[in-house]
Design a protein that fits this description.
210 residues, alpha+beta, Alpha-Beta Plaits, 4-stranded antiparallel beta sheet, 4 helices, 34% strand, elongated
Length: 210
């Protein structure tokens, strides 16, 4: 049985998920139902309504427990670690698989010929694990000029929410194309400054606050 690994976890992490990996080579691990009754429902006082998904991970020799909310995830992680030295919890290595710095970023450029890789490279100055672009389409099936990226924000104690964010607007390309870059956290910060703002227009750019 291997110690906890994150080989089977995507780079963006698994939201609100805690992994319990069996670490005793000489002992037989608890079966799924026994683990659920003794540890989840007994020690951690979880109910079925608290849990989004409870599944065994044979590749890692672990159980992955996904909670419905970040608040519940943090509470259960704290409880599990508090009793981590007691049996049977001491037989498990407890790891959070959540990455709360995961963001979906939407970039809008009026020049559709700017290459995806140029935008991706720029975002890489501020974010890690930037995904390939996904061209967003409207209800008719036409590409609307927006490109979606998934990425992890870098920590920055001075940044909004403790993370470094790409600028909301920047120039890119030989023609100085103005780009709109939004993530939920950026919108929340700007919306707090300009709550009356709904639609802003600039050269080659349109911001639609949602």
């Amino acid at each position: 049985m291997q110690n906890t690994s994150t080989r089977s976890v995507p780079g963006i992490g698994l939201a609100n998920t805690i992994r319990f990996a069996w670490k005793e080579k000489e002992l037989e691990p608890l079966g799924r139902e026994t683990f659920g009754r003794i540890i989840l429902m007994g020690i951690l006082k979880l109910t079925v309504k608290d849990v989004f998904c409870f599944q065994g991970n044979s590749l890692e020799g672990a159980y992955d427990v996904a909670l419905h909310t970040e608040e519940k995830h943090d509470d259960i992680l704290r409880r599990a670690r508090a009793v981590g030295g007691e049996r049977p919890m001491c037989h498990y290595e407890i790891t959070s698989l959540a990455k709360n710095n995961f963001r979906v970023v939407t970039v809008n450029i009026y020049n559709p010929y700017v290459k995806d890789e140029e935008v991706r490279a720029f975002l890489g100055r501020y974010m890690d694990n930037v995904s390939s672009a996904r061209h967003l389409k409207d209800s008719l099936g036409f590409w609307n000029g927006r490109r979606g990226f998934q990425a992890l924000l870098r920590e920055d104690p001075k940044g909004h929410g403790g993370y470094l964010h790409p600028p909301a607007m920047f120039s890119l390309g030989a023609d100085g194309d103005i780009v709109l870059c939004t993530s939920a956290s950026i919108l929340q910060a700007l919306y707090g400054l300009w709550p009356h703002l709904r639609l802003v227009q600039r050269k080659k750019m349109q911001i639609l606050w949602i």
